[in-house]
Each structure stands twice: as C-alpha cells, then as structure tokens.
Amino acid sequence: MTAVGIDAVEIWTGNLKLDLPGTFAPQKGEDPEKYTKGLGLNASSFPDSYEDIVTMGANAAHRLMERKGLAPDDIGRIDVATESAFDNSKPVSTYVAGCLEQVFDGDFHHANKGERKFACIAGTQSLDDACNWIRAGRNRGRGALVIATDTALYARGDAGEATQGAGAVAMYISEDPDLVELSTGQGYGSADETDFLKPNQQFPSVDGKRSVQVYLARMREALEDYESVAGDVHPDDVAFVPFHTPFPGMVRKAAMLAYRHVIRDTSIEDELAEEIGRQPRPEAFDSDEAYRDAMREYMDALKETAAYQEWYDATIDPTLSISREVGNWYTGSVHIARVSALKRALEDGREMTDEMLLVGSYGSGAQAEIHAETVQDGWEAEIEALNVEEQLEDRYDMSWEDYEEIHDAHNHDMDVDVEEFTTPESEFVFDGWGRMGERKYRYVE
Ligand code: CAA
Predict the structure, then answer these.
(1) 120 in catalytic set
(2) Please, how many CA atoms are within 13 Å of residue 330, restricted to the half-sphere of its CB?
(3) CA-to-CA distance for 156 and 144, rounded, in angstroms?
C-alpha cells in the first residue's frame, strides 16, 4: 500500500504575546509559578487587531505552498478545522482559498472545501479525512490542504483565561509524504459529555476541573481501543507521544496514566516491582475505593522513579516546547506538539526515519483518538525549513493594558477599535466588512 500522510507543515502564530508569569500573574495576584510550573506555560499568543482565524490559516498555507512549490492545481481539497468559526454557513476554507487566490496564479475552483467541527480534535479528523480521500483514489493525483486555526480566547476572569492562545497549522497531505505516514489503525474514546462547549457563543462555557477528568478518561479508552486493533504498545517502540496540549500540565497527567498503562505486564513493571511494588489489580480489592487508594499510592511512587522520569524527559517533554510559549491553539495544538518533538530531535542530531510517534488527539464534548505515525526520510529538511523561533521572537510583548484592549477588540459583543500593535508584512490582513456582512481580506506586501 502506498504511504499516505503529512508531506509538509507550517505554523503561523498570532503576532502578539502575553507573558503569563511577568504580566498576567501579578494582575491576578497569583504566584508566577502557578503558570510556569503548575500549568507549564510561559506565554500565550494573541491575534493583533488585523488578525483572525482566516488570516492566520491563510498565512500558514501561503508559507507552506511557497516553500513546497505548490500551485492551486496541486490541491484537490481544502479542509479547515476550527472551533472559532464566525459563520454557520459559509466555511472558513472558502475565505482561505479566496486569500490564496490573491497571491497565486490559478484558482481552487475544482477543490472540495469544507469545515470540520469537533472541538480540538477536528484538526486530526480533517487529517484523517484527507488521508482517506487519497487512499480511496479520489484525489486525481492531487494533495489536500488541512488547516487547523483558532483564536482560543476565554471570557475575562474565567479560569481558562490563563490557557488562551491563537495560531494556525497548515499541513499538506499527500502520497509518499516527506514528514510522516499515518497508520490506518486507530482507537477512539467517545462519549456525550458537557465539559467545554460554545452554544452559539464566542467564549466557551467550561467546567475546567471536569474537563481534565474527561480528557483523561476518553484518552484511556482511546488507547485501549487502539491496542485492540494495533496490538499492545510498548514504551521502547515509541519515540515521542504528541498529545493534545491545552496546557503542558494537562499532558503531564495524561503521560503518567499512559505510562502506567503501557508498562503493565511488561519487564518494566517487573523491574520496578522491587522499588515500588506491582500495579494494583482491581480483583485484589474488596471495594473500588480501596483499589483507587492503592492506585493513587502506586502512581505517586511511580512518578518519582528514574524509569518514569527518563521516559517522560525523552518521550513527552520535547513535545511541549512550542506550547509553553504559545498556549492553547485548540485544533492546532496536537499538531504543534508533533512539530516540537521533531524540532528537538533535529536539534539533538537524532536519526528519526522509521521511528514511531503515537499521537493522542482530544476534543471536548468529548472524543479522544490515538493513531501511530512513521517518520519519513524527508523529515529533517521539512523541520529545518520552519521559522518557529523567529516567529515567536518577533511577537509584540503586550502590557496588561494592551491585553485588555486587544481582548475587547476581539470580543464580538463589543464595538472597540484598537490601533494595531505590529506592522503587517508579507501577510494577509482583515480588511473590513462587505455588503452582506462577509469579512474581507487583502495581502500586504
Ligand atoms: N507553584 C506550582 N504549581 C502551582 C502553583 C504554584 N505556586 N499554584 C498552583 N499550581 C498548580 C496546581 O497544583 C495545579 O496543578 P495540579 O492540577 O497538577 O494539581 C495547576 O497549577 C493549576 O492550578 P489550579 O488547578 O488551581 O488552576 P485553576 O483552577 O486556576 O485552573 C484549569 C486550571 C481548570 C485547567 C483552567 O486553566 C481551565 O479551566 N482551563 C480551560 C479548560 C482546559 O484547558 N481543560 C483541559 C482539558 S479539556 C481540553 O483539553 C480541550 C481544550 O483544549 C480546552
């Protein structure tokens, strides 16, 4: 079977930055370490006044098409995944295509366009749709453009305000990809949950503590389901595990549960038994409560072992470096985790071809999905071509007053005009409203 997967990726961060320990924490009267150590975040990205999900998505796609020498004719499908859409009918992909047609010769008149919604997991679902479309032989030799773009803003004062972010990831999906091949084996954990939702409102209603528990429960089900089709996962077989990362502290919790699961009944559990005992099994306990207490004690001990810490430092920590600086990008978040990991591998001079990534996506509402990816031999050139550091470095560092203004400027219920903080250059910008309430965009040289 021909390999199908991600040929290339580009990211585009919102042009503004909010320093969480330096600017946000003092205003909230909180210890800066709640953000850096507890949530694991240093900063969040924000959109400047001329940026939105269309400009960020189109800018990421533009970079990707230019770098890969792609023309509109090479693209037979454009799917945008977002949970920040501003129109219940016209998909964001049509706006993105309109932007790209301003700068490329040709058009996307024969490309199938759509928009995917299932909270943060929609980016992975779009990726999956694109792979299936190619595997089904319906692509006529063309590839698919998948864009995950979000402005993850919370209401002022909401606990989620610390985990905001804004940015886009564009991916080109093709046969014989340069970056990663996707497995066809997948596992799902899905249930009707009320943890995080936006019932026709801009800012989410969130039950934060519950959302953490729902994430963990669905992810565990997805892992079990994945193993039922692909066989047991062994820690030694997996180079990195990029998880959906609303904030790195969430991934710390997910990683701990995943490690406990994958070492069960392996020689790693046996070796650790001398130090911390074997994992409690439910059948050995009279009540659920006693079992849960024993498991909590085991997990506390497991967390402190050198085996776990080495595995975490090698397999999980490298996936978090971009997220720490940009916050939650919702649909794009798991895709920047993959990039972070491969960037670290490149920096370490590590050979990654044929190595396996186990990718854990999650969307509130709620669904988790797990699949494997095999790194392809063009990965180094792909990752080397990214300018992530430069983009992060170039962001304008907002004062508290700037932050308050820009949050209001992006609040759909407020009519606030804010001067832009940065000067757009070689990028698409929001250019006002059309006669039917549509958004207009132009390219700034
Ligand atoms: N030093 C070190 N650590 C500190 C600290 C300090 N001074 N102060 C607090 N902490 C730690 C806390 O112990 C806690 O860690 P643990 O959970 O490991 O105990 C962590 O920092 C956060 O502190 P709180 O729990 O007190 O933080 P909070 O109540 O203000 O908010 C939250 C946390 C509920 C997750 C909130 O950020 C939120 O609602 N976020 C939005 C929802 C979200 O992201 N949920 C994640 C799962 S859902 C999902 O993934 C979909 C999605 O993208 C939204």
Answers:
(1) yes
(2) 31
(3) 37
**Euclidean distance between CA atoms 443 and 228, whole angstroms:** 49
Taking Cα atoms as reference points, which of 413, 347, 412, 359 lies closest to residue 86? Answer: 412
Q: pLDDT tens across 382-396, in order? A: 999 999 999 999 999
- Which domains are seen in the chain, by residue range? 4-444 (3.40.47.10)
In this prediction, residue 324 has a pLDDT band, given cuts at 50, 70 and 90, of: very high
Q: What order do you get walking across the sheet with 4-13 strand by strand?
A: 112-116, 75-81, 143-152, 165-175, 4-13, 180-190, 367-375, 356-363
Residue whose pair of structure tokens reads 């020689």 in the numeric block: 267
Cα(50) to ligand 1 centroid in Å equals: 30
Residue 321 has pLDDT above 90, yes or no: yes
Cβ atoms of 330 and 83 within 8 Å: the answer is yes
> Does the pLDDT of residue 39 top 90, yes or no?
yes
Confidence band, pLDDT 50/70/90 cuts, at residue 417: confident
| Calpha distance 356→98 (Å, rounded) | 37
Gap from CA of 183 to ligand 1 centroid (Å)? 32
Q: Is the pLDDT of residue 14 over 90?
A: yes
3-class secondary-structure state, position 51:
coil
User: pTM value?
Assistant: 0.97
Q: Are 106 and 71 in contact (CB under 8 A)?
A: yes
E strand residue ranges, 142-239: 143-152, 165-175, 180-190, 196-197, 205-206
| Residue 212 alpha carbon to ligand 1 centre in Å | 9
Q: What is the mean pLDDT of the chain?
A: 97
Q: What is the pLDDT of residues 218-271, one digit of tens each?
A: 999 999 999 999 999 999 999 999 999 999 999 999 999 999 999 999 999 999
CB within 6 Å of ligand 1 — which residues? Answer: 31, 33-34, 37-39, 120, 159-160, 162-163, 196, 206, 208-209, 211-212, 215, 244, 246-247, 249-250, 328, 330, 362, 364
Q: Kindly tell me the burial class for residue 116, based on how many C-beta atoms sit within 10 Å of its own C-beta (0-12, 13-18, 19 or more).
A: buried
Rg from Cα positions in the chain: 22
